[in-house]
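Before a colleague's protein record goes any further, I have to sign it off. Thanks in advance; the entry in question is below:
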Amino acid sequence: MKLLFDFFPILLFFVAFKVWGIYTATAVAIAASFAQVALFWLRHRRFEKMHLAVLGIVAISGGLTLAFQDEMFVKWKPTLVNWLFGVVFIASQYVGEKPLAERMMAASIALPREVWYRLNLSWGLFFLALGAVNVYVLYHFDTDTWVNFKLFGMMGLTFAFVIAQAFYIARHVEAEETDGTS
C-alpha cells in the first residue's frame, strides 16, 4: 500500500499525459504531490521528508513547465529527485553515526557494518545513475517515450535493483546466522 501511495503522483501524471498531454499531466502531478503530502499529514500528523523534497521539486519544475510552456523543466524532475536521493545516501556515510540505508532498515534486519556501507553506497550510486539515464532519455527520445520510460523504465530498473539488493542482503544475513550458530 505504501508503494502505491508513494507512486500515485507518477501514475496520475502518466494517465493524464495519455489523455490530455504534458501540460495537464504536469498540473495533475503538482496537485497529486500536494495531496500526497496533505493526506500523509492528516493520517500521521507528521511530514515525510522524501514527500516534501519531491513536492518542492515537482512544484518548481512543474510550475516552470506551466509558466514557460516548456516541458523540459518537468522532464528534468526525475533526474533532480534521483540525484538528490543519491547525494543524500552518499553523504549519509560521512554524516551521523549510521548510513541512511542502516537508519531505514536496521530495525528489520541485522547486517555487518561494512555491508551497511556497501548497501548504502550502492543505493546512492543507483540513484545517481538513474538520474543520468533519465537525462539520456529526455534528450534522445520524444516526450511519449520519455513518459513511458518514466513510469515503466524507472520503476522496472528500481524493481530489478531492489531484487539484486535482496539477494545481496540475503547472502550476508545467512552468513551472519551461520556464524552465530557455530
Q: What stands out?
A: Residues 3 and 155 are 11 Å apart (CA to CA). The chain has seven helices and no strands. Helices lie at 2-20, 22-44, 49-68, 72-91, 100-105, 113-140, 143-181. The mean pLDDT is 93.
